[in-house]
Amino acid sequence: MQLATAALLGLVLVGAAVLHFFKVYQRLNDPKAPPGPKLIPYIGRIHDLPIKFMWLKFKEWADMYGCANGFYRTRMLDAEFIIITDEKVAEDLLVKRAKYNSDRPNIQSLFDSKSTNGSMEYLPLMGRNQYWARQRKLTHSYITEATNARYGGVMYHEAKRWMARLIEDPDGFQFSLEDMASKVMCQLTWDDPGLSEYCTKSAWGLLTQMSPAGPITNVLTPLWHLPLFLNPWKRAERKRHDEQQEWWMQRFLETRSKMSSGEMRPCWTRQLLEKTALRTSISGDYEASSVLGMLALVGIFTVAGPLSYWLVTMVHHPEWQEKVQREIDEQCGGRPPTLEDAPRLPVLRACIKETMRWKPNVPTGVAHETEADDVYKGYFIPKGTRLLPLDWAFLRNPVKYPDPDSFRPERWLEPGWPTFQTPLTQFPTIRGMTSFGWGQRQCLGMSLTQDELIVACGALAWCFTLKPKRDPATGETLPVPLDKSNSLLIIKPDPFQMSFEPRSEKRRAEALRLWEESDAEDQRSRREFLEAARARKGMEGEAVPVAAVIPTLSTLQDTGCALGAEKKKEEFMIEISRVSSNASSLS
Ligand code: HEM
């Protein structure tokens, strides 16, 4: 080929590419599309959306493009986003049009995150499918029953343990705080607070894996498709996933085994095996162990987040800390608050709610995905669009929340503020806050969160004055930063130091005594339960009937999980034989 011909061909190709780029640019930035930052072909806005503090950039765009409509559009690679910045729009799209706006987007770095192929593992991430429907129903009923039963006293017990740990090891507060939240969930799920450390680690693994700020494959999604030998992300995820599932299954089988000898106290897993198994549509042990394992996990960092921010807030606002302490001293007769006291503690509830507004721990919100084309306010929203209710924008709305960047609990307590509501025995409540999401996917843990925060924040205020810490070497006050956190989907403040000063020697001694008493009572009740079970067995040779949740054939055919349908099927076959032999040995 002559040089001139080659040059001409090159020029034509470059020209065609430029033309194509220009056409795509025009199509993407169609003036009839919802407003938003200009989109670049193939990458959208991935180049200037930071992974760290993503919600701040989303808010910046909200102020530029979202004011008129309460939403704007953007794009990351091939994923189309509507960022919702106004509560009314969230109500329209996510509640009134929930029927086709309640699916979830795929999370690339998890195998079958939506359970489209039947993995049935992560309820909050599932698409709007049969597994989601039945697991949501079951989870809702278990949490509601536990709430009505005041969690069997678990929260009081764990709050007392936490106070004692804070007295003995105040510098380990970040660990003991998360451990407290984890112990509550492990106790409710498997009646075993000793599982908390592993459970927290496991929750952290999943949280990291599912967050945009986690593995790079969540943002540069094509990398996920590299062959396994070139793909460290997929290999790491397979290991994490398999370990987590195995651990969930072990907990489940252990519970069943203890039940067979009558040695299992009440908990959600026993409840499922004992009662619900006979009338639930949960397909088998694999699904049962997953729904329970996920339930234990989801209540750890969600609750630990606001609790951590409570510490930060109280250190920065000693005037409100004093008000909370005074209220508790006046209303609770010298003891830490219980849930029965809650109606008489509006200042405590206002400070909790304002902490969650001021420092939300899911600031980006959780995306829904549309299942049908739609037109809203004259704009076309195609099927498959991700609808992101930007909680940071809702909670910084200056009309609803005047002086939005300041911590102002009085906005919940005094007439004249737009958010003031009566009766104060009931309001403020965190139930129904935008932070818990919308419509059919709204959070199932609102009451549990509210109750745990009342008990734990109340116990803290009863026992300690929270203060900044002084550097022992220089005597200088150590900073407690307000704006340093990670950027995962559920955030928490970066490590910091602070001081937990018992309010008096008497309070300190009383807190230790309360824990000793509660611990002794817990041990006594566990011992007596075991002794009674063993005596019953010795006397009667009794075997307690335990329902086996046996996977059905249709479930097996359903389980073409991305991990490999064959592997999954093999696991189920092993499980079936194990379950069948367990069941027959009991009958
Ligand atoms: C401050 C604490 C919490 C916050 C801010 C929070 C926030 C959220 C959000 C934003 C969603 C998604 C809602 C949507 O898609 O519209 C969600 C879903 C969910 N939450 Fe929470 N949550 C918290 C605590 C809890 C707790 C303690 C539990 C359980 C013990 C829990 C269980 C769930 C479940 C099961 C879902 C999935 C619902 C579904 O997909 O249908 N959450 N939560």
TrEMBL record:
Binding site for heme: 443
Record bears the keyword Nuclease: no
Cross-referenced Gene3D superfamilies: Cytochrome P450
Highest taxon in the source lineage: Eukaryota
Cofactors required: heme
GO molecular function, one term: monooxygenase activity
A Pfam family assignment: p450
Key word Protease present: no
Parts of the chain that traverse the membrane: 291-312
Alphabetical list of InterPro entries matching this protein: Cyt_P450, Cyt_P450_CS, Cyt_P450_E_grp-I, Cyt_P450_sf, Cytochrome_P450_fung
Keywords: Heme, Iron, Membrane, Metal-binding, Monooxygenase, Oxidoreductase, Transmembrane, Transmembrane helix
Similarity-based family: Belongs to the cytochrome P450 family.
Record's protein name: Cytochrome P450 E-class, group I
